[in-house]
Amino acid sequence: MLDISSRLATLKRPALLARAARFGVDDYRRTTHLARIFQSEDLPRPAEALMRLFDIEAEMETNRRGQSGSYQPGRHVQVLIAIAGEARLMRATTLSVT
User: What is the DSSP-derived secondary structure letter of residue 40?
Assistant: First the structure.
């Protein structure tokens, strides 16, 4: 199993999805966006949130590649934005602790 940093480094998606996520990450608000994705007001810490987001995103990627009718590109972008936002938050808290 890869650690969080390795999973972030190896996460490769089509340019359009990646670009859309980069545009959205500056407006990422954890309490709003993460609560919507997890359908819960009780939010985990960034590391746990990232692991859950990776699992959700992997399923979406499988649906995208399989051209599933249930694939939702907009939701995929939302999850990628949350991954980028949580990674930023995790890096910021790690830097402030050291």
Answer: -
